[in-house]
Structures are given as structure tokens and as C-alpha cells.
# Entry
Amino acid sequence: MEIPIYIYLALIAGILSILMAIVFAKKVMKADPGNERMQEVSGYIESGAGTFIKTQYKILGIFVIVLAIALLFLPSPLAGGSRMIVFMNWEQSLCYIIGAIASMLSGWLGMKVGVKANTRAAQGCTIGTKEGFNVAFFGGAVMGLAVVGSALIGVSIIYMVFQNPLVILGFSFGASSVALFMKCGGGIYTKTADVGADLVGKAEYKLPEDDPRNPATIADNVGDNVGDIAGMGSDLFDSYVASIVAAMILTTALIAGPAMPIFVTLPLVLCAVGLIASLLGIYFIKWFGSEEPGKALNTGTYLATVLYVGLAFIMIYIMAADYPGYAGRLWRIYWATVIGLLSGIVIGFTSDYYTREDRKPTRKVAEAALEGDAVVILSGFSYGLMSVVPAAVGIIIAMAIAYMLEGVLGVAMAAVGMLAIVGTIVANDAYGPICDNARGIAEQGELGDEVIRVADKMDSAGNTAKAITKGFAIGAANLTVMALMFSFAHEAGISVIDLLSINVLIGAFIGVVVPALFSALLILAVQRNAGKMVNEIRRQFEENPKILTGEEPADFNKCIDIATRGALRELVFPSIISIIIPIGVGILFGVAALAAFLAGAILSGFVFAIFMSNSGGSFDNAKKFIEDGNLGGKGTDAHKASITGDTVGDPFKDTAGPSINTLLVVMSLTASIFMGFLLLFGGGLGLLAAWM
Amino acid sequence: MEIPIYIYLALIAGILSILMAIVFAKKVMKADPGNERMQEVSGYIESGAGTFIKTQYKILGIFVIVLAIALLFLPSPLAGGSRMIVFMNWEQSLCYIIGAIASMLSGWLGMKVGVKANTRAAQGCTIGTKEGFNVAFFGGAVMGLAVVGSALIGVSIIYMVFQNPLVILGFSFGASSVALFMKCGGGIYTKTADVGADLVGKAEYKLPEDDPRNPATIADNVGDNVGDIAGMGSDLFDSYVASIVAAMILTTALIAGPAMPIFVTLPLVLCAVGLIASLLGIYFIKWFGSEEPGKALNTGTYLATVLYVGLAFIMIYIMAADYPGYAGRLWRIYWATVIGLLSGIVIGFTSDYYTREDRKPTRKVAEAALEGDAVVILSGFSYGLMSVVPAAVGIIIAMAIAYMLEGVLGVAMAAVGMLAIVGTIVANDAYGPICDNARGIAEQGELGDEVIRVADKMDSAGNTAKAITKGFAIGAANLTVMALMFSFAHEAGISVIDLLSINVLIGAFIGVVVPALFSALLILAVQRNAGKMVNEIRRQFEENPKILTGEEPADFNKCIDIATRGALRELVFPSIISIIIPIGVGILFGVAALAAFLAGAILSGFVFAIFMSNSGGSFDNAKKFIEDGNLGGKGTDAHKASITGDTVGDPFKDTAGPSINTLLVVMSLTASIFMGFLLLFGGGLGLLAAWM
# Structure
């Protein structure tokens, strides 16, 4: 089979992206790391983050090796085209390991640069907003570019070698396994530290945010790095690769003949175009990012979108000229990607609307704080649920139009389009925690109020950007898993997923329940760990009163240790069920029920993910609104109530909500990868088929 | 067509049931209504409840008339067997009005007796637990028997007249329209008053529960009657009728020839058996209910279950002897009903486990209160979500076994079985608010601590019974709407609901989102109204300090007025969308998408209903656990945190959670009733079919 020359575009763009990441990383390293105290604090954060990642990667290593061995014994998708049982499925197993390593490496690089960037950004703030912004933003961009680059290089090389997208499923599954650990573990870690620090330090002892006397401060900063930078990066790595693979698999299933190689590489080509749009967007943000960081970040996103639409138009124009027979389909796919990208922007806007303090919902949540803790919770909870509606409408319209254009392949390409500018998205997102850390370091390095004000401004821009990127990430993951569900159904030879069949209905039922269970497990994990953290902080303050007076340093390491151990202990069960449950459904009820299970989980997961992210964001900003002096300002009962809201919202928005994406991708990929195995049970009808 | 003689059993049982309700009502009226102050308070409650019901029924009347006229112009299901467009669908329209009136009458009767029973039960408590219990329980039983009796009489007469279950859909839809208003309106009313009374009276002014100085006390008591007695009664009336209709429609669709009349009346016959089991259960509870009200209620439920299993066995044995050719199917249907009933008990147990203060989940929620308001919320929220899992497993197993026995008809019969003992369930449930009121009246009538202790004991038994019946109600509604979805699909000629079709997937997506939106709207309604109530209570205390000293009475009427107006204003929008959205989905995306919409709503509705009911129940009991002197007891920070939890849980468990049942039934019936109309759009494929 001849592979079109266009695929080299993806490879070259990937390599370029990695090179740029290295250039940006060097730029960050060259910046002034600030005074000794700042470097000390930054060093603590770096060593805490390093410890967590090292321990996490060790457990992850075991997990990956076990699964790689398991994959080895699955029926190979390469066995002569038919699904014969030929064991020694080394191709997927190998790619699985490569995918896991690629994701781990880019997570590690992103986080490493992130922790270097924080003190340098804080120091930059002493000169001005522009200087601080540039360091923080370049630091974040490293993560974004590393993710996109390694994904594109990995996928295009694997495709060139094996010429079968089913092998790339292994790569994607590797990336997902890592994402699941990073997202759950990082999410639990960051909120254990944050909630613990808030409950005792801020609420009981009235210490300000980031106060160096609070023993959980460093753990909180570490959490931002491991949860928000490495976790978010691996999450989008995972969605990105999965969207490409789903589109490639559907192409091989749906498009036959000489057109196939052209269309199968099209997702890679369009992602390469998107990467170039992202790179230009990142440069633009750098130029624009003088005094208005918030505006710069958003304008950069919109610019990357517009550039994608324009550049992809040119690309498709060239390809259509090259392959005039396929022009119609090429254009339809182009429009599907554009629709996908636009709907991502719509969902981002929705999240922004529901979480911004100058819009009605969050304003109402803040006002509810005047009536007490319970009312603020009810209000944020309800607006979070309401916010699902416009986001769902956005996705539904995108799905419908993409389907009208090119059927299920159109839906898959909409997901690709949505993720095309993922470089910009990850960069904007990783910027946030760097600024958050920079603010902390500025506080602890005693750089003065003016510098903290600048850092605060940068931080607040990061929060707004984060609301948008989080909506984007959920929407993209949703379309991606939809495409994976379709590709699973095609591969399993399922022509209909009929809800009137009882096994299918049961599959859908279980699917709808799983995101609820998963969310509950993660929130309880945070709650349990935060309880331990609370006890430890109280113990330190009680046993050594000199910590509170600032005469002696708090024992940061103890808190880091609690967060690390707790996160690692707690992530195992949710991770395992996300692999066990789909396999169990497939074995008992058959592959059609498993497809319905995925559909149920996708739909209910969307509701939970959007609801939790947006209610959490709204609680957070309602609190900030009050802290800015509104509705009585700090120290009032309303402020106290808004802190309760924020504490409830923390694990919603930073642990459970964003982990659901990864859960869905992992479950979908598990279904696809284990399909050959599941077909062994009752010919894919499941063990219970005989009785149903 | 010959109607088997067995149907008269249903009619006779129904009439018997109404007669018993009247006997019980008279018994209640004969009891001593207590001292003057008690009668005065009871009079306030009665007049408040009367005002609400009257205003509610006025609006409801308009709604019913408008819909009855709309139904008149739908294509008639009786038009010569084929779905020809013959307008003047007077049969369904007439039955719709009858169903609405029957539900309104039994709601009115139940509530009327309920408000008479409260002061008499309080007076009974001065003699002993047994005397108090008997009055409260008989008062509740009136509602239970009125519901079951009028439903059985209505359905059996309509069937005898028209001999077509599709006409009974009208009756069922009438009952559902009433239930929707009563459940949403009553739910908003009761929590507006309760939350308002708690937030100001208890939290700010430290008044005890039911203190007569609290201006919202009477409104709170009224709320128990309109929300918990009338609302719950109309909810179960609605599920009960719907389960019978769904089974009858599926029978006519699936069973042809001379066997049909036997099987089509079987749901009615089995419900009659269940009614007799319930009556015996109610008598047993009366005998047993000496000193252990909690045990008596639960034992009564189990006894009714066992009696149903035994009596239905005898009944089927007789019928199998009468129709030996159908013995196999008769027995399979028998077992399906038994499985349904048992799974109801399992779900009830689950709710009980997750909400009881002596079990791990609620104990953990109570312990979380030690760490503050936010942690208790996170904990109750998570355990509520976890509780969905065992309940879902129970329903799934019941569905699977029932399906193995007799296909979709088996599932429908499982719903009938689950609801067979609904008389006992409603009786137990209505007992709760009567005791709650009795406690309030004992407090306000100054009957002394010993009497209040007795009333408290009765009240706490009511709460436990309520947890079980609520789980039961959700499970029953779930299986019922499942059966309605199947019957809708059969009637609409849908042979497959394929999730791989984009319109079906979109339908399911919208369905999954709707319960989230509906919950949010109801909770926000409570929050808005409670805010007004809070302001009013504060105003009264501030403008007239003599209220707090007890020298002058509070202005109860103002609070009743706020709750009434607010509830009526807020229920309109959620009620209308529950009819508009399914019709809209059907018009745009076709009937198959509408079936998927129902499936999505059923599954996600189950998750939300169980989660909200159980987390609410757990918050409530965690608070009671602390108030009983545990974990520091009253007045501590932990107690305060547990009150926050309870206040959040209130609209979860008493407004949004239980309303979802009714929402699902209304949406399913809307689909069935409007089906002929929806088939006019693109032949049932929907307006968008051409583009998809």
C-alpha cells in the first residue's frame, strides 16, 4: 500500500514541535531564578514534584509491564486480516509500551520545565507583567509542544511501519494508561494538599493563601504541577492520540480502494496543520502578551482557530487538486473538522459564562453566600447542572452536522478538528499552575505587594483560560470517545446496538452508572486524604507553636509525603475498575452490550464532567468575587460560606470532573483492544447470551 | 372479546379498598383531637393545606382542560385498529379527565384525613405509643387505600367499557399530570418552608424545631402534608396505574388469540391480590404496632410481600387449572412479579443501609462533620453517588431475570409485582408526615417532654420507613417507565432502537441530560423561594421583637402565602418542559430517537433519583446522630456542619429526587399518547430525517 507523501508533514511538524519545546525550555532556564529564598522554595517544589512523579512512575511501570504482557496474549488484529486467534500480539504490546513512555516523557519534561519556570516567572514579575507572563507562558508552551510533538511523531512512525491503525490502538492505550494514573493520582494529590491547607491554615488559623507558615503550602504548589501540568498534559495527549486513531480506524473500515491511504493519513495531516496554527498562535500570544495576559491567552486561542480554518483550507485545496476524484469527500471532512473546532469553542464559552464572576450564574452563587453555607452549595450545584444543557446542545449540533457531512467518519473528524489546536490549549492550561506557583513563590520570597499584584493578575488570567480549556478538553474527549465507540462497533462487526435487546439495555445501564461511581470514589479519596492532611497540619501547629510565629519552618516534607502516599494508594482501585468493568460487561453481556455500555458512560460522563467542572469553577470564582470586596468582602459570614463552596468545588473541578474524560477514553480503548478476546465468549454475544 | 370473570376481582378489591379507607377515616375522626391550642394549630395547618390544594387544583384544572382539548385532536388509537388519522379522540380525552379527577380526589382525601390525624395522633401520644401510632397509621392508611382503590376501579371499568388498554393511557396520563404538579409543587412548597424555617429560626435565632415562635413553623407543617402525603400518594398512584397500563398494552401487542383476554387482565388481577395482601399487612401493623412502631412498619411491609407471594401463588394455581393451556406462561409471569417485588425490597434495603445512622455510610458522613461544612457535603454527596451501584445491580438483576422468563412483558410484570403492595407502601409513607406534624403539635400544644419523646419515637420510625419506601418508589417507577418505553416502541412499530443511528444517539443524549436540568430547576426554585422566606422571617423578628419573646404570635399566614405562591409559580416551567421536550424530540428526530430519549432519561433519572434521595437521607440522619449526643452533640461546630448538610440534602431528597420519578412517567406517557401525532412527521422519522 502506498502511503501518501503528506504523512511526512505530520512527522516534520512533530519534530519541529519538539525542537521548539527545547528552544522554549532553554529560554525559560536562562531567565533569572530570583533570590535565594525563592530558589529554595522552588527547590522544595521541584523535589516534591520529583518524588511524586518518581514514585508514581514506578507503580505505573509495574502496571504498564503487566498490561503489556497481557496484551501480548490477546488475539492479534494483524492475524491475516481476519480475527483468527493468533497469540503473541507483540505489535500492540510494543506500541503500548512506546505510548506509555512517550506520555511519561512529555509529562516529565512539561513538569520539569514548569517547576523551573515558576520562580523565574515570579522574578519576571518584579520587572513587569510582560516579563513575568513570557516566562510563565513559555514554560507552559513546552508542555503543549512536547505533547503534540511526541504524539504526532509516535503515531506517524507507527503507521509508516505497520500500515495498520489497529496497531496504533496500542500506542493510544499506553498513553491512556499513563493519563489515568496522572489524572487520578495528580488530581487526588493536588486537592488533598489544597483542601487540607485551606481547611486548617486558612479557615482555622486565618493564614493568607500561600503563607510559608502553612505546612501544606509546598505540597499545594507541588499539586499544581503534578495535577494541573502533568495531569492535564497527559489527559490531552491521550485524547489527541485517541481521536486520530479512531478516525484512522473508521477510515479503513469505511473507505475502500485506492482512496483509503489518502484518507487514512488525513487526520495526521490535519493535526500537523493544527500544530502549525498552534505554533503561530503561541508566538502571537508572546507578542501580544504585554499588559493584558487574559486577553492575550484568549486571543491566541481564537487566532489558532482562525489559522487552522485558513491553513487547513489551503491544505485541502492542494490535496483536492492532487486527487480531484476525492475532492468532494476531502471538503466534507474539512468542514467536519471546522465544525468540531467551533463546537469546542462554544463549549469553552459556556464554561466561561457559567464560571465567570461577572456573569449571572456565578454572581448568583456569590449572592447565595449571603444566606449561608447550604444555600451557596445548592446554588453552585444547580448552576453546574444547568450548564450541561448549552454544552450538550453544542456537542449535539456538532455531531449532527458532522454526521450529515460524512457519517460516523464525520463525527470522528470533528473530534480531530476539535483537538487540532491542542498545542495552544495545553500551553494555556499549563500556564495557569505556573502562575499560581509564581504567586506563591513571590509571597514566600517576600517580593512585596506590587509584585504579588502582578502575579495575581497573571494568575487570574490563567483561571479564565483554564475554564475555557477545561470545557474544550471535555468536549473533545466526548467526541473522541463517541468516535472510538463507533470504531469499536465497526471492528466488532456490530451493525446495530439495539436498546430493545435486554443485554444492550443492561450494558447502557451499567455505563450510565459508572461515571457516578468513579466520581464518588475520587471525591472520597480526596476527602480521606485531606482528613489526614488536616490532622498533620493541626499536629504541627499544636506541637510546635514557633511555626505559627514564623520562628521555625514547618515540616513541609511530612505533608508532601501524606499527599504522595495517599494519592498513590487511592488511585489504584478506580484505575483498575476502569479496565475491569468494560471487560466484564463484554464477557457477560457481549460486545453489543459493551458498545451500549460505552455509549451510556459517554453520555452520563459528559453530564458529570461538565457539571463538576463548572460548578467547581463557579464556586471558586464566587469566592474570589467576595474576596475582591464585594457583598461584604473578606472575613464576613458570606465569605466563610463562599470558602465552603470553594472547598466542595475543589475536588469536583480538579479531581473527579477532569478524570472522567480519561476514564472514558481508557474504557473505550480497553473495549477496542480486548475485542478479539471478548469475541471468544459466546462468539461475542457474551456468556449470558444463552439465557437472554 | 370475552373478558374473563377474574377482572371483577379487581373491581371488588378496589371498592373494598375505598370502603376500608372510609372506615379508617371515620376511626381517625372519632379520636380525641386534644386541647384547644392543639386544635388551633391543627386548624392553621388544615387551612394552609386547604388553601394550597385549592389554588393548586385551580391551576391544575386549567392545565388539565387545555391538555384534554389537545388530546381530543390527536389521532385516535381506536380508529379501526390501524393508525388512521381520525380526529375527535374523545375516549383518551375523557379518560384523561377521569384519571386527573381520581388522582386529585384521592390526594385531597388523603391530605384531609392526614391533617385531621395529626392533632389526634399527638393527643394519642399522651396515652401511649400504641394509641398515638394507631391514629397516625390509620390516617396514613386512608391515603394508601384511596390511591389503590380508585386506581383499580378506574382502570378496570375503563377496560370493561372500551376493551382497549390504549384508552387507559389517557387515565394514566391524567393521573401523571396531577402527580407532576403535586410532586413538584408540593416538593417546592415543603422545602421552601423547611429550609426557610431552619436557616433563620434554627440557625440564626437558635429556636428549637417546631417552635411556635418561628413564623414558618405552620408552613413547614403544611408542607409535610402537601408534599409528603398528597405528593407521594399521587406519585405512587401514577406509577401504579402506569405499570398496569404498560403491562396491558404489551400483552395486547405480544399475545395473540384467545389467550389475550386472560393475560391482559392479569395485571389487574395480581394487583387485586396485592391489595388484599396490603390490607392484611395494614391490619397486622395495627395489631403489632404496640411499642415498636419502626419494627411494626417494616414487618408489615415484609408480611405484605410474603402474603402477596402466597396469595398470588394460589390465584395463579386456580387460573392455571382454569386455563391449563396457558399454565406455563401464567407461572412465568407470576415469577416475574415476585422478582420485581423482591428487587423493590432490595432497593429499599439499600436506601435503608445508606441512610441509617447506625451503618457505615451515614456514620462516616457524621464523622466528616468534625472536619467542617465542606467535608460533610463532599462525604454525603459521594456516598449518595455510591448508593446508586447496589440499587442499579438490584434493578438490573430483576430486569434480566424477568426478561429471561417472559421477555419485555416479563419486565412490565416485574413492575406490576413491585407495585402490587403499593397500598402498604403509601400507608407507611403517609404515616411519616402525620407523626412529624403530631410532634409539632405536641410541642406547640405544650404537652410536655414525655409526650414529645413518644412523638419523636414515632417520627423516627416514620423516617426509617420513608427511606425504604422512597427506594421502593424509585425502583418501581424505573421498571414501570422501562415497560412504558417498551410498549411505546411496540406501539410505534419500532423494531430496533439503534444507538449507531445518529438521531437515536442524539435522542439518548438529550434524554440523559433532562433529569439533570430538571433537578437543577427544582433546586433553584427551592433556593429562590427559601430566600424569600428567610427575608420574611427576619423581617418579622426585626419589626416585632415580641414574637421572639412569645408575647405576640408570629404571622404564619404571610409565610404560608410565600410558600404557596412560590411553589405554584415555580412548578409551571418544569412541568411544561416535561411534556414539550419529548414531543420536540419526536418531531425533530423521530419516534426511534424518542424511544432512545426515554431510555436515556430513565437511566440517568435513576442515577439522579437514587443519589439525591439517599444523600439527602444520609445528611438528615447524620445530623440526627449528632443531635442524639454523639461526636460532641448539639451546639458544636460539627453539629452546625451537619445542619448545613441537612439543609443541602432537604431539596435533594424531598424535592428534586422524588420528582424525577414523576418526570419519567409523564415523559413516557406523553410519548405514548402523542405517538399518532408524531408519526405525522416524516412518517415517524422526524423532520430532520432527510438530512441524517
In short: The longest helix of chain A spans residues 449-491.
